[in-house]
Amino acid sequence: MSRGKAGVFSLWLEQRPFWCWKTSWVENFLPCNSYIDSYDPSTGEVYCRVPDSGKEEVEAAVEAARAAFPGWSARSPQERSQVLHRLADLLEQSLEELAQAESKDQGKTITLARTMDIPRSVQNFRFFASSILHHTSECTQMDHVGCLHYTVRAPVGIAGLISPWNLPLYLLTWKIAPAIAAGNTVIAKPSELTSVTAWMMCKLLEKAGVPPGVVNIVFGTGPRVGEALVSHPEVPLISFTGSQPTAERITQLSAPHCKRLSLELGGKNPAIIFEDANLEECIPTTVRSSFANQACPLGFGLLGEICLCTSRIFVQKSIYSEFLKRFLEATRLWKVGIPSDPSASMGALISKAHLEKVRSYIKKARAEGAQILCGEGVDKLSLPPRNQGGYFMLPTVITDIKDESCCMKEEIFGPVTCVVPFDSEEEVIKRANSVKYGLAATVWSSNVGRIHRVAKKLQSGLVWTNCWLIRELNLPFGGMKSSGVGREGAKDSYEFFTEVKTITIKH
Ligand SMILES: NC(=O)C1=CN([C@@H]2O[C@H](COP(=O)(O)OP(=O)(O)OC[C@H]3O[C@@H](n4cnc5c(N)ncnc54)[C@H](O)[C@@H]3O)[C@@H](O)[C@H]2O)C=CC1
Ligand SMILES: N/C(=C\C=C\C(=O)O)C(=O)O
């Protein structure tokens, strides 16, 4: 890791013979001495190495971000917006290259990276480039005491941004874009498992005219560089997406500095399917919502590696058998294949450790007497010889499982879903709410009154009814209970990344 001309840090990915992206811009950066092996999930082989940065790199990044802050924060929203638009255009021009890289690094299908991850990363910059132009402040009057009050907002300073491996560029840009649009400078840390597209974006930052020091990217592990960033006294706010245990650690480290935190964490998301649901629409959407993020049917991707994925399907008893039969038929159609295969609907999981973790849940379910109806341990995977060491697994459906089972309580974050029957509306709401998480729920019914009633009673930051993962970026995104703290979106991100001041004028 090193300081570069553009104020971008720790940017050295060692090239392996089959690593094909151009690296001429790397000359701006000094090499680092310590690396982490990065694996291709589809083969299980090391294919590049990521810098293993720590305190020293964070210190250098803070210095650059501090120096850049006065100039960047003094620019008008219009000027910052133009830079974000240029960056979006450049990312879009590199869409294919970025999609190939994301697919190779993460294991998801190329189709998914091409149609979801990279387009959404482009959209993140365009969206915040536009929304930053439309915020207004508050004003109230107190005529009886001759006072006018109004608010002003200012960027907070240096924002620490930490993102996970499931949607690498998509989630990193979802944080960088609003932070810099609001006038902050940032230090961003992508997951050590998926650093490549962040690294590729660095050269585009410079080209887009992002001034040196405005966006600093540090690469490395959570315990080393992540904690150095979170603990740094000059980084007053942290936006984090990832697991709940890591969020706890970040909260502890932030507490002595009273840092502002935005935490987007996991879920144990229910789908509630009433007997009057339109199964023609519900079944394909629920297959997708269960197994998304290595998969991409209908040009819309999803392998259970999205925090919004369904992992508990409650089906009203009267339609349970029919639903289950059709759901299994639809699941079995999903082809697991190498990420570059355009006919594959699912690629590989992120890592060996993660594959083992996901498999361990299925073992536990079996030991508890649950039925595994398809997938892991039931059907056979067919893969080319070169990919036998990859982290693949078939979409797996579990039934006859108790609500108390760990498979029904804990976030598995893999292509595994549990299907259970229910009798009444009241019962299913109670059962859906009986977990520590509260991120996303789906409700399927043609009774509008019921939809409103149930949606209001679910402890969930997001409720999709008769659909799934239709995103309106303007509106609040985030979870209740252990699924997070705070919300992201046009207004919410703006409020998080700015400090508000109330001014009173006596006249
Ligand atoms: N959005 C979500 O809900 C996500 C949930 N997960 C869940 O978390 C489980 C574990 O996955 P991980 O990759 O280990 O997630 P994680 O929460 O440990 O990693 C997310 C990010 O946090 C960083 N990080 C880790 N420890 C840190 C620390 N002490 N201080 C600062 N930063 C730190 C990581 O380097 C990465 O950039 C998954 O199996 C899944 O259940 C994982 C990714 C995303
Ligand atoms: N935070 C996650 C997904 C967000 C999706 C979106 O903003 O559309 C996650 O899977 O971790």
From TrEMBL:
<dbReference type="InterPro" id="IPR029510">
    <property type="entry name" value="Ald_DH_CS_GLU"/>
</dbReference>
<dbReference type="InterPro" id="IPR016162">
    <property type="entry name" value="Ald_DH_N"/>
</dbReference>
<dbReference type="Pfam" id="PF00171">
    <property type="entry name" value="Aldedh"/>
</dbReference>
<keyword id="KW-0963">Cytoplasm</keyword>
<dbReference type="GO" id="GO:0042573">
    <property type="term" value="P:retinoic acid metabolic process"/>
</dbReference>
<comment type="function">
    <text>Catalyzes the NAD-dependent oxidation of 2-aminomuconic semialdehyde of the kynurenine metabolic pathway in L-tryptophan degradation.</text>
</comment>
<dbReference type="GO" id="GO:0001758">
    <property type="term" value="F:retinal dehydrogenase (NAD+) activity"/>
</dbReference>
<comment type="similarity">
    <text>Belongs to the aldehyde dehydrogenase family.</text>
</comment>
<feature type="active site">
    <location>
        <position position="264"/>
    </location>
</feature>
<feature type="domain" description="Aldehyde dehydrogenase">
    <location>
        <begin position="35"/>
        <end position="503"/>
    </location>
</feature>
<protein>
    <recommendedName>
        <fullName>2-aminomuconic semialdehyde dehydrogenase</fullName>
        <ecNumber>1.2.1.32</ecNumber>
    </recommendedName>
</protein>
<comment type="pathway">
    <text>Amino-acid degradation; L-kynurenine degradation.</text>
</comment>
<dbReference type="GO" id="GO:0005737">
    <property type="term" value="C:cytoplasm"/>
</dbReference>
<dbReference type="InterPro" id="IPR016161">
    <property type="entry name" value="Ald_DH/histidinol_DH"/>
</dbReference>
<dbReference type="GO" id="GO:0047102">
    <property type="term" value="F:aminomuconate-semialdehyde dehydrogenase activity"/>
</dbReference>
<keyword id="KW-0560">Oxidoreductase</keyword>
<keyword id="KW-0520">NAD</keyword>
<dbReference type="InterPro" id="IPR016163">
    <property type="entry name" value="Ald_DH_C"/>
</dbReference>
<dbReference type="InterPro" id="IPR015590">
    <property type="entry name" value="Aldehyde_DH_dom"/>
</dbReference>
